[in-house]
Records
---
Amino acid sequence: MTTTVAAYAAPAARARLARTTVTRRAVGEHDVLIDIAFVGICHSDIHQVREGWGTAIFPMVPGHEIAGVVAARGPGVAAFAVGDRVGVGCMVDSCRVCPNCRAGLEQYCSDGPVWTYNAVGRDGQPTYGGYSQKIVVDENYVVRIPDALPLDVAAPLLCAGITTYSPLRHWHAGPGRTVAVVGLGGLGHLGVQLAHALGARVTVLSQSLRKKDDGLRLGADHYHATADPATFEELAGAFDLVLNTVSAPLDFGAYFALLRTDGALVNLGLPEDPVHLELQSLNGNRRSLSSSGLGGIAETQEMLDFCAEHGVAAEIETIRADQADEAYERVLRSDVRYRFVIDTATL
Ligand code: NAP
Ligand code: ZN
Ligand code: ZN
């Protein structure tokens, strides 16, 4: 039996979000039906609603930072029971047989993962995200939210958390390593907490010193303003790893110079416009420019367990669904401390 539930959707590119309904598929053999409690607003929602990354599918129900409770399950579901606290991130399916899927890198599925929204599922139907009351997801793409993490502050971990955790682990952030996080927004404020919890020395590079107190409280050892040219002189060659979380094009050349020998600048931000690369400062000292996307399902579970153990969670501003457009405007102005989360009871 299908379920029709309230949702918020953009009817067309750049249109305001409006209340609507979506119909969720009947709970299949390996599916769980989730009562969504909270959903985070990721900057990627804004890029997609505005078609900043190219043609998108409308109506669009955004939302891929989903936290809720299992309300029903299919007869073949082994991992979850009704009442379990669960999360869903950016993907709801993948091919499961390609080398990346087999290696737990479902986000790099060579057949393309099925994104939680703005995509077409393997059943040929469009996917609709978490700005809605319920969602049906295959249990293999659902993770368990530990009891120590309240659902509202856990929701942003499903995208912003895993997107920063995965590169921190891959590039060995830990004791004796220096990490810079560029941009103290949704991704950035979790990147700082996670890098600190992993034992690295952490520096925030923000446009101004406006959020310095927060950055230090979240675990940064140092905090610098990128608007001040002295920052780049002072920090030349200082970092093993620079994580760029900025949603707009960055002057990468200036940041390459901050890397020490064999250091890596890992790009996470996905701006809508192309960037200009000044490569001379990358060439010295065998520096590298790389990228990272999200994280696999098992790694997402590992990240949630790590957060529960180390007291890492998002700092949030909880809003009603009808405040989402206003929240988008504030995110675009970098006026967010540090993630907007929609209480789905207001749908
Ligand atoms: P966000 O909350 O808006 O944070 C971005 C931060 O970048 C802002 O808080 C601001 O920090 C800084 N910033 C914004 N505009 C800037 C500008 N013009 N110049 C310099 N700094 C600027 O966004 P988010 O949700 O963290 O997402 C960040 C980006 O990552 C987005 O492009 C998103 O689509 C992308 N993303 C990528 C992945 C992936 O898998 N790679 C996953 C999720 C999101 P300060 O005020 O501190 O400077
Ligand atoms: Zn996201
Ligand atoms: Zn695959």
---
Amino acid sequence: MKTILTGLRPTGNLHLGHYFGAGKNYLKMQDDYDFYLEIADVQALTDNFDNPDKVRKNVYEITKDLLAIGLDPHKVHIFIQSKIPQIAELTVFYSNLVTVSRLQRNPTVKTEIAQKKELFGNNGESITYGFLGYPVSQAADITTFDGELVPVGDDQLPLLEQCREIVRKFNSIYGETLKEPTQVLSTTTRVKGLDGNDKMGKSLGNAIYLVDDEETIRKKIMGALTDTNKIKKDDPANPDVCMVYYYHKLVNKEANTTKVCSECQKGTRGCVQCKKELIEAMNNFLKPIQEQRKYYDEHPEVVDQILKEGTSQALQKAQEQMSKIKKAMKIDY
Ligand code: TRP
């Protein structure tokens, strides 16, 4: 059985983008692999160091979201990064194997520094050592568990490349010890935001969360982008530029979606009606997820136990891997 390792930063609840882009893939993979799913609290702190309450709260929020979509804790080891000291230890060892300039050139890091002007300054002049180094820590996340396959979004590819470079460097110096990980890109495309933005995200304010209640869903969908050329209710329009149609395709039945498309093109469907139907379809889609979630909200002790068990299995794997690594590095005193 191959080992899968992936991580999520606990900085907010999961939204539809996470579900279709990542969660659905996890569900498919959980039967066939030794699957380690890291709640990356240490990584979340690299740009939320001043907000520990947010990170702590979201460790539980994300775990409950993952369980609500149907991840089976008997199949997937869900664990908390900060509870595995070997990851921090390995990050220190790896920090000798990567140059500062290489990290500064990492495209993912560059983009993120540009997005976080408030924290790191206009030109990244106030970048912290920890944030610059998080790709090194992510390489440790992966290799601590001998991760062979890493399901990620395409924004993470430069981090995977960085990890492979570190692995090759390690193996060339200390002898063949670590495996080079391979990415598993999501088979679904990235889910666009309600405003038509290519990406759905919290900071963009265009996301539907798995925990959103009916009123929130209603408000969000009523404000979604439609064909701006359609002025009157009976104008024919182009569904391909309409986010309401886009979401019908994601969550509604195929027969309904076909109807939405042809009526929209013919001009026999008003946007308000179309949005109302989407609201209903969206609520139906989210209902089973939210029912599952309710159980975990009402039983925090079950969530604690799941994290405890996942973390203890992860710890065992990390200890085995660390003794191999220390032996290779001749620090196995
Ligand atoms: N950086 C990833 C993200 O922001 C989260 C993550 C942490 C991760 N550790 C990982 C992903 C290890 C893959 C493997 O989405």
---
Amino acid sequence: MNIHYLGHSAFEIVTNGKKILIDPFLVCVPNYKPENICDIFVTHGHGDHLGSSINISVKTGAHVTAIFELANYCAKKGAKTIDMGLGSWRNYSWGRAILVPAFHSSSTPEGQYGGCPCGVVLEIEGKIIYHAGDTCLNSEMKVIGELYQPDIAMLPVGGKYTMDIEHAVKAAEWLQTTTVIPMHYNTFDAIKVDIEEFKHQIREIGKVPVVLGAEECIEG
Ligand code: NI
Ligand code: MN
């Protein structure tokens, strides 16, 4: 499996020739072409997460998985969708996924209620990947840690609208994860951080920080 960072909170995961997108807000990767996408996960309705999901679904036939209200919104705009609630695994051709709580807000681009904001846990090739969406530090992360011990956690670190570095380091501890990929930072001024500080603090607790530039990739 390969995990490509597409900037901000956007990722492309490639597993056995199948491509999955998470929060495809693609302003950081103007040359990226979303092709042969099978599934798109959208954590909440804010523009910097919903991104190009609807267009990509319309063009490629990819299914958008999101919480009920947000999936319905995407379906009305012509996307193929899979609606879910919090709390149970769903099987896919490449593995399985579950939506988990995030503490944030969510509205559609037109300002309608977007359902509750989410994170997502994916099981792919026997590995557990957790994408936190936009959230503050919260005790649900202890539950995710106890149940799944993610191999890789994608955590927002930019502060202001989400966790900051200090809280993301605590989250990494609670999640019992080994590898942490920071996201949702330095895309714009309000969420500027010194990412060296993040690396330093994550190493201090014995975990591996993987800081990716847009379009950089790691093997999962
Ligand atoms: Ni948001
Ligand atoms: Mn955001």
